Amino acid sequence: MAIPFDVLAEPSRRQILDLLLERPRLVGELTEHLGLTQPGTSKHLRVLREAGLVRVRRDAQRRWYELCPEPLAEVDAWLAPYRRLWTDRLDALERHLDTMPESLDATGEPDVADVPDVADVPDVPDVPDVPDGEAR
Amino acid sequence: MAIPFDVLAEPSRRQILDLLLERPRLVGELTEHLGLTQPGTSKHLRVLREAGLVRVRRDAQRRWYELCPEPLAEVDAWLAPYRRLWTDRLDALERHLDTMPESLDATGEPDVADVPDVADVPDVPDVPDVPDGEAR
DNA sequence: AAGGTTCATGCTCTTGCGGTTATATAGCCG
DNA sequence: CGGCTATATAACCGCAAGAGCATGAACCTT
Q: For the region Disordered, what residue ranges are annotated (chains A, B) (predicted)?
């Protein structure tokens, strides 16, 4: 089964999942929160259903949509090998701050530039970053 | 900063990240692996760059692209509240299997249907699942 | 039976995205 | 300098995705 990144790429669909994280909901309820039309909501729900991210229970004319988190495990699995990269960096930052507690950064933002590179570029004459395409 | 799900939705871009997970690479190298044209690769790299997922170092005419995993932390953060849901289910499965080791499932696949529902639908007369839209 | 809810589906329109081709830019080497 | 290499950008195209509207289907209520 393909990783459902494309399904999650849609903000409304992520919002639906977030809402279903609290509790199961009716289509009308979701529609109200999303601020789009009911057919629009239904369409997103269909995509989520086919991706196995939600389940439906019928109750007369109503449909209770509930979360089905299993496919998200695949996203988590894809993320796994990357996770250690930024935790490594954060660890390095912590060690750094631990070594020199006089460091004057008030922000909690990890100052990546301060941390020794995890993956080193093979013997490239360390040229400053390319401003190149950045300025569009 | 918005969660870069839309950037990750593209298979080629995920593949690029996977390749950069090993080591920094040149555009040509990536192009070869991806099986698309060089401009196509450059375009994806631009998107990844603007999302802060990769960095560039220039080396004469060459460009070494390297991974920049920090934005993935946001994905991880979004995933966090969901993670406990499926781990809960797996835990329940483990406890289940622990209780009755005579269980005859040979597969390692978690048989979710066996696990008691985590979130229960509020007093809906438990009607069987809707085959409804599924059959297209 | 009639009318009102609640939701799904079909259609159309528009936009954006991914892909390719052609071209521009930058730097190397002979 | 001239040509070659490596990459970015521009212009264009086709298609699929998302949004809205109108309609259909299922079910309740009276």
A: 101-136
